[in-house]
């Protein structure tokens, strides 16, 4: 067991219990934070866009071409990722991220 | 021109669930028209993941989104549904009573008007609309300096055009508008494009010959006193910024889904979903049903197969509205000659 820390669009930080094997998007959605996840985790919509704290970026698998294609459809920062493409493992205990603006 | 169409049922949404509802209604001799905002049938299956395999459709160990849609179209073919594509249902007006509902349904684009006895909303996540980049005050320029689609190319003649994006729409409009633009700039966040290779090549050669500009970066701010656009501030990967002067900006960031005008039809909504009962999948308005991803009820699962079930049950209640005098006999397609006749397969 472990946690992730998610800062919402109002700047409030939430600590969410994480489950191994779940997509980070699914963890965020399961806890009721406002993340859309329209396509259900198929890497087809970019509505689960998050900004990952710089310290954690290197610990993640790099984005696939498919994820980059979807990131083209939003306004990104250097630390932009799609949270449906991050599968939570105990290595990511304490993962820190921020929800991107809605619709972007 | 306003068409006025009288029919039994209008289905909003030509995704898999809307398509299968045509089948279930058809078996009960109920005629329907299907309206969808996209130019093609299939909804999310065809628009978002046509090539993605789906593994939880009963009877299909694996089927792609597009193949599922193609099969559904073949399955409903005997019922000859009429499709109204590229249209969005704008308004729904109740003309009847709770016991005998009657609705006037109007679409926006082509102004089709329907009179129908029941309405089935199978709109999934809502209507597909262009994704708007979250740039401050962008809405102040929409329709004058910012456009999410090209309807009339001539509007852009002799303009300084900034196209943003790296997909097919961005690249197609880049090569199509370049000849009539005063100056065309393509902006993308990275030097990789997911568009047809020959279009990308054409764009690269226009850049090489100096006939257009290509920049890498993202728009941070729009310039000019709204609604008149004068330029955009672009941020590069290294954090530095520069300006591009432009009269119009065309962002092509793909599509997203919005609940849209459904919110104005007097239906109860819960977080953009429509609550229904689980016997008939009817909303708080008698005669208006909601099936598939757009509805909610205790235990709801957003699965295509749930939507199929919901359509079958909704059709039973629709039958009562369409044929109030007729008793509905429950039949199987395996054994009923009458159903087989409707399907065109009777011996």
Automatic annotation (TrEMBL), chain A:
Transmembrane segments: none annotated. The keyword Chloroplast does not apply. It comes from the Bacteria. One of its GO terms (molecular function) is 2 iron, 2 sulfur cluster binding. Pfam families: Fer2 (PF00111). One of its GO terms (biological process) is P450-containing electron transport chain. The keyword Phosphoprotein does not apply. InterPro entries: 2Fe-2S_ferredoxin-like_sf (IPR036010), 2Fe-2S_ferredoxin-type (IPR001041), Adrenodoxin-like (IPR001055), Beta-grasp_dom_sf (IPR012675). Keywords: 2Fe-2S, Iron, Iron-sulfur, Metal-binding. Residues 2-103 form the 2Fe-2S ferredoxin-type domain. PANTHER family: FERREDOXIN/ADRENODOXIN (PTHR23426), TRANSFER PROTEIN, PUTATIVE-RELATED (PTHR23426:SF63). This is Ferredoxin.
TrEMBL record, chain B:
It comes from the Bacteria. Its cofactor is FAD. Binds 1 FAD per subunit. It is an enzyme of class 1 (oxidoreductase). It comes from Microvirga aerophila. Residues 8-298 form the FAD/NAD(P)-binding domain. PANTHER family: THIOREDOXIN REDUCTASE 1-RELATED-RELATED. HAMAP family: FENR2 (MF_01685). The lineage of its organism: Bacteria, Pseudomonadati, Pseudomonadota, Alphaproteobacteria, Hyphomicrobiales. It catalyses: 2 reduced [2Fe-2S]-[ferredoxin] + NADP(+) + H(+) = 2 oxidized [2Fe-2S]-[ferredoxin] + NADPH. Its EC number is 1.18.1.2. One of its GO terms (molecular function) is flavin adenine dinucleotide binding. FAD binds at residues 36, 44, 49, 89, 128, 293, 334. Belongs to the ferredoxin--NADP reductase type 2 family. This is Ferredoxin--NADP reductase. Keywords: FAD, Flavoprotein, NADP, Oxidoreductase. SUPFAM superfamilies: FAD/NAD(P)-binding domain. Homodimer.
């Amino acid at each position: 067991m472990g946690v992730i820390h998610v800062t919402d669009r109002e700047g409030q930080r939430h600590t969410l219990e994480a489950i191994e094997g779940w997509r980070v998007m699914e963890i965020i959605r399961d806890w009721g934070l406002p993340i859309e996840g329209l396509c259900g985790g198929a890497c087809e919509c970019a509505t689960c866009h998050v900004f990952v704290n710089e310290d954690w970026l290197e610990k993640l698998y790099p984005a696939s071409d498919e994820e980059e294609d979807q990131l083209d459809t939003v306004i990104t920062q250097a630390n932009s990722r799609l949270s449906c493409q991050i599968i939570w493992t105990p290595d990511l205990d304490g993962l820190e991220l921020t929800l991107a603006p809605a619709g972007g | 021109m306003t068409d006025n169409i009288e029919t039994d049922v209008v289905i909003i949404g030509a995704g898999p669930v809307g398509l299968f509802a045509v089948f279930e209604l058809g078996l009960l001799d109920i005629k329907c028209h299907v309206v969808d905002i996209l130019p093609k049938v299939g909804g999310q299956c065809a628009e978002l993941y046509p090539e993605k395999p789906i593994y939880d459709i009963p009877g299909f160990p694996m089927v792609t989104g597009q193949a599922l849609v193609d099969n559904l179209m073949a399955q409903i073919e005997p019922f000859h549904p009429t499709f109204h594509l590229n249209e969005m249902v704008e308004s729904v007006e109740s003309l009847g009573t709770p016991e005998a509902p009657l609705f006037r349904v109007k679409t926006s684009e082509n102004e089709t008007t329907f009179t129908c006895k029941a309405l089935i909303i199978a709109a999934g996540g809502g209507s597909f609309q262009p994704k708007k980049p979250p740039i401050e005050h962008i809405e102040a320029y929409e329709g004058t300096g910012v456009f999410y689609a090209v309807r009339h190319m001539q509007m852009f003649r002799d303009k300084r055009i900034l196209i943003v994006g790296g997909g097919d729409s961005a690249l197609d409009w880049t090569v199509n508008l370049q000849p009539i633009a005063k100056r065309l700039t393509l902006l993308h966040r990275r030097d990789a494009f997911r568009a047809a290779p020959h279009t990308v090549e054409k764009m690269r050669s226009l850049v090489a010959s100096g006939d257009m500009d290509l920049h890498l970066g993202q728009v941070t701010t729009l310039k000019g006193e709204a609604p008149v656009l004068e330029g955009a501030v672009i941020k590069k990967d290294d954090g530095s910024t520069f300006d591009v002067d432009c009269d119009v900006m065309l962002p092509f960031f793909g599509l997203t889904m919005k609940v849209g005008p459904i919110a104005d039809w007097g239906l109860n909504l819960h977080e953009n979903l429509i609550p229904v009962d689980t016997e008939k999948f009817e909303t708080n308005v008698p005669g208006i049903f909601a099936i598939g991803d757009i509805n909610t009820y205790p235990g709801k699962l957003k699965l295509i197969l749930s939507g199929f079930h919901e359509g079958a049950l909704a059709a039973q209640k629709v039958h009562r509205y369409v044929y109030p005098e007729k008793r509905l006999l429950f039949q199987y397609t395996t054994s009923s000659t009458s159903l087989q006749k409707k399907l065109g397969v009777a011996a």
